[in-house]
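Appendix B. Chain record.
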Amino acid sequence: MSILQAIRIFLFYLLLGTSSLLWCTLSFFIAPFLPFRARYRFINVYWCRFALVLVRVFLNIRVKVTGAENIPAQPCVILSNHQSTWETFFLSAYFQPLSQVLKRELLFVPFFGWAMAMLRPIAIDRDNPKAALKQVAAEGDKLLKDGVWVLIFPEGTRVPFGKIGKFSRGGTALAVNANLPVLPIAHNAGKYWPKEGWGKRAGTIEVVIGEPMYAEGTGPRAIAALNDRAAAWNEQTQRELGSLPAQASNDPQPVT
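Structure tokens predicted for this chain:
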């Protein structure tokens, strides 16, 4: 990494952290008096857009979105792979209002956590997986009925670029029980914003929004089948983006 790049990254994090503190503090005093949708825009959309401007100006990371025409009119469950912090900024601004699953401890962080608590997140206890699943199902269903997008990272945590995690069924179960589709999203953000370390690479992050996927029936089998379809689509799309190695062909090779 060059000295110039290191300075740009330092300035990016300095402005990102400072703006987060100032904006969350301001939101703490203003947002409680706003209706939910206006509150979401004030707290999340405006700051996330500002963060993405910092990403573009200081890190020279841009974004290309394919498949925006696939977004349904009615909010549903979004299933996205998870490689970095970038996609949380981007998706929170792109889909609104949006709720996502996060660690309950984050809500206790002064000002930042207090501001997040006003956005109707699904704050779970990761040490109690069974209770967390029930909480996602109950709160997620209510959010969907209120017209709020629910973002699920089915891998459960950030996965390094070049790998893919196992998809949990919580998101597809939520969609099936609410009689709604899942909206699959794949991206290669980890190529430019790695999971580990502070380093960043200039380039264009590609985000692909697939067609909404509906379950064929109800019950555990329908949930599992929909989850497998979403996982297969994400894996194939990541391969096409170059995030995963190309799959070796099993077709017989011609004899020369």
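Further analysis of this model is presented in Appendix C.
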